[in-house]
Amino acid sequence: MRERLNESMDPLSKILTLSEGEREAKGLVHTPQEIFQQPDTWWRSYEKLSQLAPELESFLKRAGVFNDLYARPSVFLIGAGTSDYIGRTVATLLRRVWQCEVCAVPSTDLITCLDDYVVAGKSYVWVSFSRSGDSSEGVAVLESALDRRPEIHHIIVCCNGEGRMARTVSEHGNVCRVILGDEVNDRGLAMTSSFSSMVVAGQCLAHLQDLAAYGLTLDSLIMAARKFLPAAAELAEQVVAEGFSKICFLGSGALHGVAVESALKVMELTAGRIVTFSESFLGVRHGPLSAIDDETLVVGFVSGDARRRSYELDLLEEVRDKGLAKNILVIAPRVELEDEKRLAKIGIVLPLEIAAADCYRPPVDVFIGQLFGLFSSIRLGLKPDAPSPRGAISRVVSQVTIY
Known about the structure:
alpha/beta, 10 strands
């Protein structure tokens, strides 16, 4: 009976049916479960933000986010690695809804070049994202800003209430904390559910004044994710089994953030044994296209916007017509019939049944990067929970000397 049940399961679900001993021996205790659980965690993150909404809205009013248009602060979205890419995926939405300058700034840049980014006399809101809250650079940047620029308002979004960032800000009036549930404080090396849950938290921040309306969008994302995840797992395992030595992820706008994060996931989970890179659809022509060859899988996160999609399909058709890639995989929402026909001629199409705008899609689209990373790691004989056998990288970057 169990064998029959396994035959009907997608590859990710099959991993979760392995015995605890098998999963531990193969380094599959945390990462597969953390990928699988994501749709269930998003609503709980939404509920957490809903509880904090009055406090957060009051905080943002004091910070000037709802002032007259030209009196609003600049917003920095801060993090390192995956936490930086959270900022890249939510910047578009926050800029659109808050109607102020919003940009993602890596904490790894701020720690060395703080004065190059902060203009004296200008008001700022910093939103810092961190899974552990213990990253050396993240903590140091926060402490430096609190000491040298006490007028800056801070929102800390992290998954660990016991982390140094959460503790550091506990006594400061210009700081508001958002601590997500411990279940999304991923124990695997690579951030998966912590990434998507903090992206959802960022989307909630954008919609603090209309969270009920955003809740409808999130509900549609969750339904789409539950349908998309098993299909993506099936396809990812199949394509990984066919083999490739490089993978190029392409996206525009918020989906470029997904492309960057997906490239990092595959690199981390394969210890760099698969070469990964990412670009925008239009940017890839300006040099990186030369790196796409017959051992490269190209993955395109195609826009739901018709004008943007026209540029993207032109690029993918160019890659196909020049015979550059080993294969092309397209993640695409519902599109017009004419574009559907174009997509079918380009390569493999993985449909995403969602009507939401591109800026809301990152929590769902990122599944494909996570799954390519997971199944590639398994195929290479690595342990996905700890895929860096020589210890080149670790779950928390903490051994950095701060000057």
